[in-house]
Amino acid sequence: MFGAAIVSSSLAIATSICFLFFSTPHKSFYHSLFLSSTFSTNESISNHLYTLTKRPHIAGSAANAEAAAYVLSTLESYDIRSHVRPYYTALTYPVRRSLTLATTVRDPPIELRLEQEIYEDDPYADVADQVTPTFHAFAKSGTAVGLAVYVNYGRVEDYSVLREMGVNVSGRVALARYGKIYRGDIVQNGYAAGAIGVVIFTDRKDYGGDGKWFPDEKWMPPSGVQVGSVYSGAGDPTTPGWASTEECERITDEEVEKSGDVPLIPSLPVSWESGDVVMRSIGGMVANEDWQGGEGAPVYRVGPGPGVLNLTYEGKQVISTIENVIGIIEGVEEPDRYVILGNHRDAWTFGAADPNSGTACLLEVAERLQKLQKKGWKPRRTIILCNWDAEEYGLIGSTEWVEENRQMLASRVVAYLNVDVAVSGAGFEASATPQLDELIIQAATQVQDPDNSSQTIYDSWISSTNSSLVGRLGGGGSDYAAFVQHIGVPSADLAFGGGYPVYHSMYDDFTWMKKFGDPLFQRHTAVASLWGLVALKLADEEILPFNYLFYALELQKSVEDLQGDVSGRDIKLAPLFKSIEELKKAAIEINDKKKSLKGRKGWTWTRKDNQNLVRELNDRLMMTERAFTDGEGLPGRLWYKHLIYAPSKYNDYGSKSFPGIDDTIEKAKSLNTADSWHSVQHQIWRVARAITQASLCLRGELK
Question: What does the alpha-carbon distance between residue 647 and residue 428 come to, in Å, rounded to a whole number?
């Protein structure tokens, strides 16, 4: 009778078994259901992306407000309690810009094109005039006239090479190519070297392909320009450390400039077509081989001159309304514990990959969670879905929200799961704080690879890398920054594909995604599956699936890497090694405790004393990440509280473990004084103390 009633499908069998042995299905049943083909449709994700990218929607624009309304109405249609949280933030827009090149004193200056061309049969030609003119957000208004000097990627080490070559950058206009480091640091490094202005071009070697480009191939067209922010801080620069609410306190423009987070010289982004023109005007020594461009590019020389660049930029700063959309699915057993999923919505232009591939996935996750609720699922902990605004300007929407809710979030958030560019191509990538490594890897074994149905994401992931599977969240590249680096929340960032050629240009549209990024939208579906599964495990498992042993091993490796940097100096790393050993012991102890609880005979989660025991254990697991923060922040960078993960001082995209130690080592190498090396030792002690605090928290002990 039992068997005769359930012969229709394996899913029906699983459902019946669950209902036979449990009053309601086990949470793992719902997790499997979340991944089933009946719960997801590529078409739904495609429709969301198409709708979100119909018009350019830069932060502060009417089009972006319409996109926010679409996200809000979609979440509400899924019966998710949702609201908009507005902030009133300083954003900048271009008013006037020009770039001319004088090649000789006799010839008239060449006006370099700053516009991006509409391509043939462009379906978005009718709204192309709504694309904001190419610019750098928060660039300094002004004019710079000077001999052009080629500075490669504009890194600190590139300027060292130029000094060795005898090339003086002071009083010149630096020509740099995009790549390797954050554009804001390209400008800041140019200023530090004495440049009076910076022009950054999209080099065909890195972005332009081999003679074919979009719409025929995935590569950046000759007129394509990567726009973006050159602000080096996080959040509204006029409200450092507090939320940009209506009529709040703001610091002055002079104080913003003194912060060091906004450039003090003008800059402009240009295409590789314009970059070639400037490069042909530069003489002097031939640049090193690794500084050269790709096939078809002119020979790259360093200058200075004889070409003279005349750069003019005028921008306006306005207080604009930005809108975060927040959806809440309240937990049943622990409503005061939050699992947060976040993605930003604003785009420099159409934003098909960056960021609305992620927004489409967020809405897909929301829809599947609604379907689970209709099947009877209720999360143990509260799930919060966040759609951020003004990320592109400097992580503004997420930062303002975290700053406004700092104490609540610091005491209640279990984890933050970020997806920015969900899909830009093939190949899964993940970064996280180390206690989440095991969870992400485990989830990847349960989701089918979208490009090879015979294997899982984990199978393709592990075969495509020779290094660590999971990266780290030290860079300031997306909305996880406020959660990890400011308040110390365990976090992860997930994506398919790495960098892509049309990044931050007007060619990042639905057509590009449909032709090259994800033609069948299977990668989008896979991101939604993995993102949602990790969230479900964090929301539903009685004992949080954190493993701090991964953290201890990661820190040990980082200290070993430090040894070469302080070799030959009177620097003691013993405090670090000792504190990490204690963390390792604490991690093993709590892992053993989790196993013993799960394996105990007659264990039931409904007993009050067991609930209290598990709650206390979970609090230790949740709060240990907070222990890696320090209220004093990093040296000269108060907002960054995390002593393990934060951006490099000279590259916002990059990072090393122990950023405070790394910064002081670089300074000590430059000054080479006893005091500067003493500062290095002080930072080592600070980190060691933080790791010791983490061990005590994990053990739940008082000394």
Answer: 23
What average pLDDT does the segment 151-157 reach?
Answer: 96
Alpha-carbon distance 561 to 56, whole Å? 44
Q: 680 and 591, same structural domain?
A: yes
Q: CATH number of the domain that 188 lies in?
A: 3.50.30.30
Q: Catalytic residue numbers? A: 391
Backbone φ/ψ region at 41: left (φ over 0), alpha (ψ -120 to 50), beta: beta
- Do 595 and 656 lie in a common domain? yes
Task: Answer whether residue 220 shows pLDDT above 80.
Answer: yes
φ, ψ of residue 289 to 5 degrees: the values are -55, -40
Residue 358 CA from chain centroid, whole number = 12
**Would you say 372 and 33 are in contact if contact means Cβ atoms under 8 Å apart?**
yes
Please give the single-letter amino acid code of residue 60: G
pLDDT digits (tens, 9 = 90+) for 222-245: 999 999 999 999 999 999 999 999
Q: SS3 sequence, 553-618?
A: HHHHHHHHHHCCCCCCCCCCCHHHHHHHHHHHHHHHHHHHHHHHHHHCCCCCCCCHHHHHHHHHHH
| Residue partners of 187: CB distance under 8 A and separation at least 6 | 136, 139, 154, 198, 200, 230, 263, 265, 267
Residue labelled with tokens 């049969």: 121
| Cβ burial, residue 104 (10 Å; 0-12/13-18/19+) | exposed
pLDDT of residue 649: 78
Locus of tokens 């719960």: 39
**Alpha-carbon distance values, 217 to 209, 214, 221, 383 (Å):** 8, 5, 9, 40
- Identity of the amino acid at 611: Q
Q: Are 543 and 519 in contact (CB under 8 A)?
A: no
Give the pLDDT band (50/70/90) at residue 605: low
Residues in Cβ contact with 449 at an 8 Å cutoff, skipping those fewer than 6 apart: 455, 456, 457, 459, 460, 526
Do 77 and 99 reside in the same domain of the chain?
Answer: no
Q: With a threshold of 0.90, does the pTM exceed it?
A: yes
Cα separation of 272 and 297, whole Å? 9
Structure letter (DSSP) for residue 290: G
Helix then strand then coil, % of the chain, to nearest 5? 40, 20, 40
Domain count, the chain: 3
The C-alpha atoms of residue 194 and residue 340 are separated, in whole angstroms, by 44
Cis peptide before 215 (omega within 30 of 0): yes
CA distance 688 to 685: 5
Nearest in space to 407 (alpha carbons), one of 643, 543, 243 = 243
Cα pseudo-dihedral 402, 404, 409, 410, rounded to 10:
90
| Bridge partner residues of 141 (DSSP) | none
At residue 615, does pLDDT exceed 50? yes
CA dist 423 and 516 (Å) reads 10
Q: Establish whether the linkage from the previous residue to 355 is cis, with ω within 30° of 0.
A: yes
- Per the CB < 8 A criterion, the answer to whether 257 and 103 are in contact is no
18/116 same-domain check: no
Domain coverage including residue 292: 90-318
Q: The CATH number of the domain where 409 resides is what? A: 3.40.630.10
Which residues are 334's β-sheet partners? 381
Answer whether 132's CB lies under 8 Å from 107's CB: no
CA distances from 548 to 429, 432, 590, 604 (A): 21, 12, 9, 26
Rounded distance between C-alpha atoms, residue 590 and residue 619, angstroms: 12
